[in-house]
UniProtKB/TrEMBL annotation:
Organism: Sistotremastrum suecicum HHB10207 ss-3
Acidic residues bias locations: 8-22
Membrane topology according to the record: Multi-pass membrane protein
A molecular function GO annotation: transmembrane transporter activity
Keywords: Membrane, Transmembrane, Transmembrane helix, Transport
Residues that span the membrane, as ranges: 40-60, 81-101, 167-191, 215-234, 372-392, 412-433, 445-464, 470-490, 502-525, 531-550
Matches recorded under SUPFAM superfamilies: MFS general substrate transporter
Major place of residence: membrane
Alphabetized InterPro entries for the sequence: MFS, MFS_dom, MFS_sugar_transport-like, MFS_trans_sf
Name of the protein in its database record: MFS general substrate transporter
Cellular location(s): Membrane
Start and end residues of each stretch annotated as Disordered: 1-29
Length: 567
């Protein structure tokens, strides 16, 4: 399976380098996308892929908002309530792997539509859960569906972007912030009037008066269903040409490209040579695949598809065996199928060996220190941010109980969550700007990480409501800047051939941090409500130290610096 980072390597290369063809050769398929350009099809697809980002954060924020209500509904202890968020993150980790494999085997369209449909379905199932255990199981299934949205949608849009437009993929982070805001707005509208107070407050019939969290999940499931329907009813998605080429279906790739160009209003004429995703390596003079070695050539005898009835072989790109190449005795259908199966298994075996070699390469003496620091940075940042984010609504409510400084009720705490979500909206743009200032990426990332820790400490110690909300806005803004820089910088630290493996493994470790954080935070919550926030601040500081230990310019940047010096 190709990770989302691997599929986006070209994007990072164009950002890291000077953009010349001599720096990274362009394949004929790359040049075909450049000819088609950035048209209406790409803009519509970019917007629809944004639904995946929106759904991701929308449901993560929903789990945090309903957590206090679920705790009251099922009378769950602080130590155990974190299993809700851990179940979602575990499902998201499985979903990222599973849907990526699905998109490689069945095509991008299946994953593109399937993730949102199943997210809507499992979101509805969550709202109907009759026990805490069933809710956690349902949330795992929800995570396994929505967890595939960002990697598969990111892969799809990256495969359609022409040169010089890959930076637009980062615009999807705007949808991510909107998802959190949308959840907070819906929560304010439906939860306060349909919820019981926290545990230990006024007695309440939870079966009758604590349905707000169910209403929230049902409304979000409806929103997700609408996004799914927009994808299938108002837009015709053509299979990714790059996927078709790597699946050996070159003629179908041509048809897909021609339909895309026609949608853009500028039809192009293409030949088979225009969809080759290979380039000639100048040093060796051989034809090489730009990401993976080409699959073994399988010559299909003319009678192979006879047993399957009417089949348009030309449209499917099937290469028929020449009489000069075919055996004197044509193999039987079972023998032909066996040959194809052996070829596929051989290809998968070579990919597994290549993956193992890449993992060994990122841990080689040359890269070991850098890799371990990057892994530590991703893990600690995810641990810290998740621990604070998932317990924020509960912490806000806990501070209002028995407080002499205002009466922060459920509606007030949700308003603070909305302000928190709004605070992160400009973070991606600020992160992009900070990277090009004299601070550079390393200092910008370290500064935003330490600033997030500072606002966590401020959150613990302030008592005035407006300062409390200012602290939450600071955490959200700085954390969004932090993630924007981290996602953009990490790939450029590593050499091109190692980026997919290094970034994919770092992303997996961040998911593990997201699984551990709610469990650890729940245990700390039992000791003192402030302890999870202190732990988050400490983890952010540790992440900042790891960032400062990294080189400002990794091997992946040196080529860019040389080009800048020349120009």
């Amino acid at each position: 399976m190709r990770s989302s980072f691997s599929d986006n390597e070209q994007e990072y290369d164009s950002e890291a380098g000077d953009g010349s063809d001599t720096e990274e050769p362009r394949t004929p398929l790359d040049k075909t996308f450049d000819r088609i350009g950035m048209g209406a099809y790409q803009w519509v697809l970019l917007s629809l892929c944004g639904f995946g980002w929106l759904a991701d954060n929308m449901w993560l924020q929903a789990v945090a908002i309903v957590l206090p209500r679920v705790q009251r509904h099922y009378e769950i202890s602080d130590r155990s309530i974190g299993f809700m968020s851990s179940a979602v993150h575990a499902g998201m980790m499985v979903g990222a792997l599973g849907w990526g494999t699905c998109s490689d085997l069945l095509g991008r369209i299946t994953a593109f539509n399937g993730t949102l449909f199943l997210t809507s379905l499992f979101g509805l199932v969550c709202s109907l859960a009759g026990s805490f255990n069933w809710l956690c199981i349902s949330l795992f299934l929800l995570g396994s569906a929505v967890g595939g949205s960002m990697p598969t949608d990111g892969t799809l849009i990256s495969e359609h972007m022409p040169r010089g437009k890959q930076y637009l993929v980062t615009a999807l982070s705007v949808f991510f912030s909107i998802g959190g805001v949308l959840t907070a707005v819906v929560g304010i509208l439906v939860i306060p009037s349909n919820s019981c107070g926290p545990l230990g407050t006024v007695p309440c019939d939870t079966q009758e008066y604590n349905k707000g969290w169910r209403y929230l999940l049902q409304i979000l499931a409806l929103f997700t269903l609408v996004m799914f329907l927009c994808r299938i009813l108002f837009f015709t998605l053509h299979e990714s040409p790059r996927y078709l080429v790597h699946a050996g279906r070159h003629r179908e790739a041509i048809i897909s490209l021609q339909k895309i160009s026609a949608f853009n209003g500028e039809p192009v004429r293409l030949e088979l040579s225009d969809v080759q995703d290979t380039y000639k390596e100048s040093l060796e003079g051989t034809l090489l695949d730009r990401e993976n070695p080409p699959p073994p050539t399988v010559i299909v005898p003319q009678n192979q598809y006879a047993v399957y009835g009417d089949y348009d072989q030309e449209a499917a790109g099937v290469v028929q065996a020449s009489p000069l190449l075919a055996d004197e005795r044509s193999p039987s259908p079972s023998e032909s199928a066996l040959r194809v199966e052996d070829a596929v298994l051989d290809q998968q075996s070579r990919r597994m060996r290549a993956s193992a070699n890449k993992i060994a390469a990122v841990l080689s003496p040359e890269w070991r220190r850098t890799t371990l620091l990057v892994w530590a940075t991703w893990w600690t940042m995810s641990l810290a941010f998740t621990m604070f984010n998932v317990f924020l609504p509960k912490l806000l409510e806990a501070r209002s109980i028995g407080s002499d400084h205002g009466s922060e009720d459920i509606a007030g705490s949700l308003m603070s969550v909305l302000i928190y979500s709004l605070g992160g909206c400009p973070g991606a743009l600020l992160g992009a700007w900070m990277q090009v200032t004299s601070l550079g990426r390393r200092l910008s990332l370290a500064l935003s990480t330490v600033a997030t820790a500072f606002f966590c400490l401020l959150f613990v110690h302030v008592q005035v409501q407006w300062l409390l909300r200012l602290a939450t806005m600071g955490i959200s803004l700085c954390a969004t800047i932090m993630w924007a820089i981290l996602y953009g910088w990490t790939p450029t630290i590593f050499a091109t051939e190692l980026r997919g493996t290094a970034c994919g493994s770092a992303s997996a470790l961040s998911r593990i941090g997201g699984i551990i954080a709610p469990l650890l935070g729940g245990w700390l919550l039992m000791l003192d409500p402030a302890f999870p926030v202190y732990a988050s601040a400490a983890a952010f500081v540790l992440a900042g130290i790891c960032v400062l230990a990294l080189p400002e310019h990794g091997n992946g940047d040196r080529r860019s610096l040389a080009a800048e010096a020349i120009h």
